[in-house]
Design a protein that fits this description.
about 70 residues; mainly alpha; binds zinc ion
Length: about 70
Amino acid sequence: MSSTQAGNNRPQQDDDVDAPRVPRRTPMACQFCRGRKLKCDGVRPTCGNCNRRGFPCNYTPVNSAEK
Ligand SMILES: [Zn+2]
Ligand SMILES: [Zn+2]
């Protein structure tokens, strides 16, 4: 096996880069996390943030139908 040194010296990309508009990390944030702009882990029925604070975790289903 030849040990070819691939260019693995990539510059660290900022993790805080503004995402365009497609949050792929969190499928769905609960209401609490949404209101507080927290990073919801999406755990059900109670996410980590709500679980730690003892808040009721509510996940609002995506309602595409806007009336
Ligand atoms: Zn949450
Ligand atoms: Zn929650």
